[in-house]
Write the structure tokens for this entry.
Amino acid sequence: MTRRNSTPDGRMSGWRGALLLGLVLLGCMMPRAHAQVREAVAHVDSHLSTVIPCHQLESEDFTKVPDAPTSVISATVVPASDSAPEYCAIKGFVQTQIGFELRLPTHAWNGRYFQVGCGGLCGMINIQNCGDVLAKDYAVAAQNMGHVSHFWKEPLWGDDPMLRSDYGARSTHATAVAAKAIIARLYGKQAAFSYFRGCSTGGREGLFEAQRYPADFNGIIAGDPAFAGHLGPISNNYEARQLLHRDGTPVFTPAKQKLLADAVMAACDGIDGLKDGIIDDPRACHFDLKTIACAKGTDQPTCLNAEQVTSARNIYDGVRNSKGERLFPGGEMFGSELGWDGINQRDIANAHLRYLGFAKNPSPTYSFWDFDFDHDLPKLMKTEAIYDPVAPYQTPDLRAFHARCGKLIVYHGWSDQGISPSFTLDYYAKVQSYSGGLDKTRDWFRVYMVPGMRHCRGGDAPNTFDFMPPVVAWVEQGTAPVKVVATQRAGDKVVRTRPLVPYPQVVRYTGHGDVNDAVNWDVHEPSKIYDDNVAWIFGPEAAKGPRVLIAE
């Protein structure tokens, strides 16, 4: 379907686009009482009870729910526990195979709906990841993204175009529609506010929702977004080739990985003014691999051989074709070295290329080594548009989400070993180009970079945090988030805490008190502002003329 009154890259033209942007601020300044005056909408924090018995949902007809024909398979009451209120546990599916589970408090619903994202290739229902939110009396849901499979193993379901579509964007939206219909039937009221949280594939789901289904959620938390169409066949494929030989043996031994990681930390750790084992912003580091390179033609335990130096340099730089054109906004950052795992990247690349990447699947023996970065990219364009919120040559356009007063928080670990943080920063920069710059964008969309954190979790740094209270306060009271405390634990012991702040702001130790206590850190504006808007082969710049090479 052609979008009228829009430019080729999806932007609204003329007075209609200007009118939408002009109404955004006015609409978001208006009181949020509209949620209370609409008929049959829940009041928040009112401890609502169900109006029909839980089990009755099994006989209710949800087959005519628009966009989400639904069947409830079971609905049973689960008694209260130390970690959760009594709730109605509901299992069902949305046509065709989108399996979901809901947990709806029977006597203490707070009027809000929460949906959690999945990870990897999904194929399971991770309702357990809603536990912290259910404990606060939210109605919660999770889904399997339209298929049953192993988290990583071969996605045989990729032969089915409908299941591909569900894995892309449809299943997340359809689950939200179905869940809200069931909630309205059970409580006799609609949810007042709806929230989504996910990381990796779940982060991608969140950005899909913000762009394609802006009415589904009022607040979205998207971590380390994994754009499957770009990552599997391109970035992960390239990194696997740097980390593995043709016979599958690793280029780096664990000892050589540690050697590299230790050298990087020694060179980069103190740049932010404090040696604490955390690289605050890896882009400020200018570590030279030559400092740990073995003499030509040798390989010793205390240095990297020539092959290892080349592989590391390529991983830091990121994937390019033979012309030097970037195929992804950037490579892995300094500080990610201990997480480099060619086996994981290989398996992701093979799974995507064999079953998801091409319009017609190749032989199951097709290898990531068979992919040609110069000639095979056009074959991926249709599927990239299925799996990624931003199709090739397009710019992310979240203005409809903004116009509905939606609030978006994206976070990304600086030491993410699987998805370069440059991808998220490029995305953020391109959103700003539609939203009037950084200051206006931060009114509704904020990015938090997490020093030392790997992909979604882990790393020798504060890496656990809770963005739910901040996003709820932002949506419902208009209180924009600033500091969010991250914690590092060793078992039950808190090792250290540190504040996270909206990018590009940074935090610095005050010089007084316990350095491992977040209260002793202040917010600072960065000394250097980076241009995060990268020209790369599937970016919007590439559609406007000849391919742009990135200057080194």
The CA atoms of residues 136 and 364 lie 46 Å apart. DSSP finds 14 helices and 13 strands in the chain.
